[in-house]
Design goal:
The complex is a heterotrimer of chains A (97), B (315) and C (392). Chain B is an alpha/beta fold. Chain B has helices spanning 29-41, 53-58, 78-94, 113-117, 120-129, 180-185, 200-212, 226-229, 236-245, 271-275, 286-314; strands at 45-49, 70-72, 105-111, 134-139, 191-195, 217-222, 252-255, 258-261. Classes of the chains: A alpha+beta (97), B alpha/beta (315), C alpha/beta (392).
Amino acid sequence: MTKKFNEKAWHEYDLGFMVTQPGCAAEYRTGDWRSQRPQTDKSKCIKCGVCYLVCPEGSIVLAADGSYDFDLEHCKGCGICATECWTGCISMVEEGE
Amino acid sequence: MENFNVYAAKLAPQQESLASGHRACQGCTELLAARLVAKTLGKDYIIANATGCLEIVTSSYPHSAWQVPWIHVAFENAAAVASGVEAGIKVLKRKGRYPVDRKITIVAQAGDGGTVDIGLQALSGALERGHDMIYICYDNEAYMNTGIQRSSSTPYGATTTTSPAGEVEPLGQHTMKKNVAEIAAAHNIPYVATASPSYPFDLMAKVKKAAAMPGPAYIHCFVPCPTGWRMAPNLAVSIGRIAVESKVFPLYEIENGEYRMTVTHKHHRPVIDYLKPQGRFRHLSAANIAEIQAQVDKSYDRLQKKIQMSRSELN
Amino acid sequence: MGKRVGIEVSLAISEAVKQANVDAIAAYPITPQTHIVEHLSELVAEGTLDAAFIPVESEHSAMSVCAGTAAAGARTYTATSSQGLALMNEILFIIPALRLPVVMTIANRSLSGPISIWNDHSDIMSVRDTGWIAIFAENGQEAYDLTLQSFKIAEDHRVLLPISVNIDGFTLSHVIEPHEFLDQDEVDQFLPAYQPAVQLNPDAPVSMGMVGIPEIYTEAKKCQDEVLKASMAVIKEVFADFGKRFGRRYQVVESYRAEGAETLLLTMGSVSETAMETIDRLRDQEQRPVGLLRLRLWRPFPVEDLIAAMPGVKTLAVVDRAVSSGGTGGPVAGEIRSALYSVQDAPYVASFIAGLGGRDITIDDFAVMITQAEAMAKVKEIHQYKMIGVRE
């Protein structure tokens, strides 16, 4: 059973306390931060990819049909995608709705 | 550089080498810019990062958002550390201890905090020595990570925690923003550019160009900070666009001394469109705004003259 | 064996760096280190040394560039003194935390103010707690030998810590002394190419210099501390290996005529050679049971070796070349008193501050210190420290 990072003994860490697992920040659920979340009316989505490109989190991912889905584990609900969307098909709804 | 009329986001590279899960504020365009840089450069690059928002949010032990080799040493020395990585790899290649045909781009990343003030010496040294590297300054116009204190990149009329608007000091910041792109250009390096994540294709093309050109490159990237600029996070990308549309932050490049505007608009917006949505300019009077408009116009005209002079020198 | 050459100590050090086949040198000139870096840049320019010479714009950048080159996997060297050392101060703490082996010559020079280009130990003493291994050379041969050994110690995977080799500015750096240089193949066999444990390489991406949140910071410092203490074993190994190969055996604590001594003088650096003259005179002409300890290794502090070097000693006269203003003694004396605190029948420790800002310490001065220390010890005088040779 691998120990949690704050349970290891001083000699059990990597050299110089460097991190050797690239991109492991993805384990951290920044999605828990948000108070509103994006929602797409896919019928109006033109699959332009703008939302994907302007998400600071990189938590908009290409879906199989060429539209885009939201990675709710990491989405912070900033609303940039909704503002930048060309057709206005993304709206921000309160979390918990 | 072409003027992108079609916003073909689908054509952007799919790779992501900056992972989600970083601790940036919602709507942080600095992280957006860094993500776009990462997209452009892929896997074969090494980052020397200065202390600042970008470094703090992407390296909270045990979580690193970076999928490329990354080193953080201190606040004012990103350019020096990058110089060392560049020189080290170069000599190792020469001495046969690193694969010679492997092209690895060395990138220094720092905020305006780690660049325009405390980091200026190291930047100047690196540019003068001619290291083959890209220095990217993510400029959110204050020392944001420590609590929104002024830097010499804070614009005239902005309120920050150490240049607050008050009775005796009604403007807040009463000095002009330092033009570090021009300081970099004065070092006669092959490539200098201003960029914005609100114009992602322009930014990515510039990063790609900088990586392909041997020698030092400096990219000054304008990254609105909703937290520090006191505005709604969802407007962060649009305010960056308005900055360019209102001539506050023109997008240009200087390639081997030749100036070129890379994003042009037929009509420009008045500066008030840029200032109004931001709480940090809330205290400004109509007279202040008119003054700022005059400064922006003058600056832009001067830039236009440099562009014309460049063109005529080449002809 | 090698050839014997009369050469300026600075140039002998450059020779060692050249023979060590260093990959990267990033240094900023400062008196009295200048001859070292000037000569190295000549060697690079002539093609005699295949290395990157990075002429940085300040010492802060020098050490920052060294962080970059070492992290990239290059054998890295720099040199500085005094104000330069002070300027790179914040980075000095970071290098061992990142476990980067950098070798640095410090041509010890007084710290401003007042500004002084002359020799004392205030510069090295100001960086005591940075986590570097610190070694002292007493003459040119030692400077050359210890520089070569430092690369081996620093780069050992059980260590991976930076090392400073301290030489007295001007007194050593600018003086011509005889040196026996090793042949290149002897050096190559003793010191193979640097094999980094980890390096910045896109094939195996790592993140170095993470935020040390409270949950791990203590463990990080404990780790650094333990590694520094454990480096003692590697230092002794390398000293022994060098001694076996080349006949010059270094010790972490060197003794001189200490057998049967009741009073010991303790010095560091080049003044030790003068102190040896004093011991000779007092022993041979006055039959006094006195001896000398020369502290070669400053960090990690050789507690056990020091205690073992003074059996039955009643008085220890420690000579510091730096003052900790408003403190309880010179830095070295303070450390020794701490080390001896729990030792039964520990000797009386007298703390003398001498040789500041380039002022000579003469053979007579050392004799006076010994006599004074013995007198103080006899009456168990309550004493913190005293400055020798100050006009009052």
